[in-house]
């Protein structure tokens, strides 16, 4: 049997489940009386796992941060995935811009000295171009900025997963793309700031589905305008974070550009993907944001019979396969909050910290707000390890250009 220590036998587990069900006692209470946690519960089946799938993987926790010599401004900062990766790569994130107050609280919690343009002090609304541009100038960002702009405009308008959470009869089921009045054109607002301040380099990130929505070539036209201004731009490409050391399948659309002499060369993907198994063998002692859900006996009874990769259709959650990258960590809905996949070795959903590890956030990075909102922040983030590797590529391109 693989997984957490202090597992109960299946016989004992079934006794507890039956008692909880027939006597109407909360399973969490019965476990507590036995001095057990949900991690003591087990699945019926544990297929053999190759040792190679359980070897430690690359993490930012073990990396030493480079000297922060290159300035950067973060747009659509969210919980700070890009900020963390760029920081480890040697960038000084001067300013983070974010409209969600809970995300702003997380950004400030992890770096109290950071300048965060967002609630409650600012709107953080990037669509208010003149207003935000004036604030940036007041903060010392001028045209010809000798640093980097990076950001990923909200992707729900272009995401298949985000929109198929809704019923097929719901107006939100089909991707609205650029027709989404609230979020669909924010990528063009972001490009406007690039043209306005002309940073030495920039990075744009989004979901893979964005190009499928660009039926009239609006993104190509906007990027061509940047080329006409003297930027050398990478060919837009879709990458899977699992080929860059992230233990999760996560497809992202990436474009980078520089106005320096050296073009950006994006990192090459590994031929192999990164399995998620070893993530669940690292100690969680003294970590923040690790609160597990108290499932009912009925839920555990359904979960415990699932094979690796199996789905509980009622709860729409999947048991992760430790031999493979995790399925994409998702944010959940704005009303119902986030939800997670099932732990591969204990029949329960993941904690926020476990999801953050799949996203490659360092363990000392803390998420604020209610638990559901923490899941949302983690699920919406760019994996910091991927951001680190993209940031390193930009750093290599502009290292000799900084005045």
Key terms:
Rossmann fold, elongated, DNA Methylase, Chain A, domain 2, 2 domains, 403 residues, two-stranded antiparallel ribbon, 13 helices, eight-stranded mixed beta sheet, alpha/beta
SSE blueprint:
Blueprint: H1 10-23, H2 27-33, E1 70-75, H3 81-89, E2 91-97, H4 101-110, E3 115-117, H5 129-138, E4 148-151, H6 160-163, H7 186-197, E5 201-207, H8 210-213, H9 218-228, E6 232-233, E7 237-240, E8 251-258, H10 297-303, E9 311-312, E10 317-318, H11 352-358, H12 371-380, H13 384-398
Parallel strand pairs: 1-2, 1-4, 2-3, 4-5
Antiparallel strand pairs: 5-8, 6-8, 7-8, 9-10
Helix pairs in contact: 1-10, 3-13, 7-9
Short summary:
This protein has 403 residues and is of the alpha/beta class. It has 13 helices and ten strands.
Task: Give a description of the structure.
The chain is an alpha/beta fold. The protein folds into two domains: 10-56 and 282-380, DNA Methylase, Chain A, domain 2 (Alpha-Beta Complex); 65-272 and 383-398, 3-Layer(aba) Sandwich (Rossmann fold), CATH 3.40.50. Helix content is 30%, strand content 11%. The protein has helices at 10-23, 27-33, 81-89, 101-110, 129-138, 160-163, 186-197, 210-213, 218-228, 297-303, 352-358, 371-380, 384-398, and strands spanning 70-75, 91-97, 115-117, 148-151, 201-207, 232-233, 237-240, 251-258, 311-312, 317-318. The strands form two sheets. Strands 1, 2, 3, 4, 5, 6, 7 and 8 form an eight-stranded mixed β-sheet that branches. A two-stranded antiparallel sheet has the order 9-10. Helix 1 packs antiparallel against helix 10. The chain is elongated, with a radius of gyration of 22 Å. Residues 158-166 and 177-182 have low confidence and may be disordered.
């Amino acid at each position: 049997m693989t997984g957490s220590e202090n597992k109960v036998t299946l016989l004992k587990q079934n006794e507890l489940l039956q008692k909880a069900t027939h006597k109407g006692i909360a399973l969490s209470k019965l476990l507590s009386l036995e001095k057990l946690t949900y991690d003591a519960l087990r699945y019926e089946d544990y297929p053999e796992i190759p040792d190679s799938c359980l070897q430690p993987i690359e993490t930012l926790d073990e990396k030493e941060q480079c000297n922060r010599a290159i300035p950067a401004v973060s747009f659509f900062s969210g919980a700070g995935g890009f900020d963390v990766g760029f920081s480890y790569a040697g960038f000084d994130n001067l300013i983070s811009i974010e409209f969600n107050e809970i995300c702003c609280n997380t950004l400030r919690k992890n770096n109290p000295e950071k300048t965060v343009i967002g609630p409650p002090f600012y709107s953080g609304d990037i669509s208010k171009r003149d207003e935000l541009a004036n604030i940036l100038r007041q903060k010392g960002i001028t045209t010809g900025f000798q640093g980097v702009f990076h950001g990923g405009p909200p992707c729900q308008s272009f995401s298949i997963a985000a929109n198929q959470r809704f019923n097929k009869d719901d107006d939100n089921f089909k991707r609205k793309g650029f027709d989404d009045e609230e979020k669909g054109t924010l990528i063009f607002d972001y490009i406007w700031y690039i043209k306005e301040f002309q940073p030495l380099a920039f990075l744009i990130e989004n979901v893979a589905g964005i190009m499928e929505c660009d039926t009239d070539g609006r993104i190509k036209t906007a990027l061509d305008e940047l080329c006409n201004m003297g930027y050398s731009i990478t060919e837009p490409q879709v990458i899977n974070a699992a080929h860059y050391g992230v233990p999760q399948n996560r497809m992202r659309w990436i474009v980078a550009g520089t106005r320096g002499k050296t073009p950006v060369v994006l990192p090459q993907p590994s031929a192999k993907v990164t399995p998620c198994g070893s993530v669940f063998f690292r100690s969680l002692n003294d970590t923040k944001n690790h609160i597990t859900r108290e499932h009912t006996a009925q839920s555990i009874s359904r979960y415990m019979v699932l094979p690796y990769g199996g789905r509980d259709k009622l709860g729409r959650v999947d048991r992760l396969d430790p031999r493979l990258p995790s399925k994409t960590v998702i944010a959940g809905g704005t009303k119902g909050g986030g939800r997670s996949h099932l732990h591969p070795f204990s029949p329960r959903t993941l904690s926020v910290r476990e999801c953050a590890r799949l996203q490659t956030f360092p363990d000392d990075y803390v998420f604020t707000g209610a638990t559901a909102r923490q899941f949302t922040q983690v699920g919406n983030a760019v994996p910091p390890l991927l951001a680190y590797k993209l940031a390193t590529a930009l750093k290599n391109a502009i290292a000799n250009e900084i005045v």
